[in-house]
Request: fold
Amino acid sequence: MSRSGAFCPRCGEEIERSEDLPEREGRDSALCDSCYIDQYELVAAPDRIEVSVCAQCGAVKRGNRWVDVGAEDYTDIAIDEVTQALSVHVEATGISWQVSPEQVDETTIRMHCQFSGVLRGTPLAEELTVPVKIGRETCERCGRIAGGSYASIVQLRSIDRDPTETERDRAKEIAHQLVDDLESRGDREAFVTEINEVEGGLDIRLSTTRLGQQVARQIVTELGGSFTDHETLVTEDSDGNEVYRVTYAVRLPPYRAGEIVDPGDGDGPVLVESAHETMTGTRLKTGETYKTPFEDGEAPTADRVGWEEDAQETTLVAIEDEHAVQVLDPDSYETKSVPRPPSVDSDRDTVRVIRGDGDLFILPE
Reply:
């Protein structure tokens, strides 16, 4: 420390300056350290904090907005709100603090806070107690959910069949996953209002038309088929604007990957590998690729033969030539000659076969 030759205008004492500290600026730069520290607090906090929390989802109301804070209980919320409300002196350095919550009652938490830091080269410590009062309300989002509000419906159906349990479950997962993704990015308008199992499929009610379109598009991307949409006028808002509800009709294809069908063109059955905008698969007789587009969204006509999972393993008896092999019929145990696909070579002992119209066909590996 060295003497500066300047005197504090408040207490009259000569001010000592440290050569390690920068020159002070501002209206209070003339004050000595003692008077400066007496005039300002290291940390300032409100005498009391009141916070509204949604009783359903735990969101916190800040101003006119509801914010998802991810708190597990009211103590986490109280700590977060106190942290938001604190203000630390702009010149303070080395600030550290800890808090000890005291649960006064179900909705009141007293936060005991201890702070330490350095102001004008002087180590300081302060203690504050801030009561936090929790008020429980219902946020707009939860109110809309409770009231059954929705702006779009995704109707899951299939052509010439009912959607399987696996397809219905995946459609539900897609809806919830998209909502979770939007929520993680701060979108509180996205939610699933209701999911109903109905005759012939599934109805998913969603909060916005954009979310409905996203769900329909993702279902078609994963499960195949196509979707259409149409609007229905439901009401007018307070400004006289028309409010529409949009229905997205998803139609899954009649055939699925792993199904064996016969297109009826004389070239034998096909193991379906994809049935989106184009049905593709493998001819069981020849191993050749089969491909046919959906005309105007309608799947090609074909007879159902069975499923890949229904195939039976049997003995490969002999290779006749490049077009035929002999296998043991798994039902009659007779030796039968069947078409030889390219995947069957001479060192095979067994093959998987399926019966269609009384004939046996070898499935590709």
Remarks:
- The longest strand covers residues 122-137.
- The chain has a mean pLDDT of 82.
- The chain has three domains: 40-137, 148-247, 259-362.
- The helical segments are 33-39, 74-85, 140-146, 165-184, 209-223.
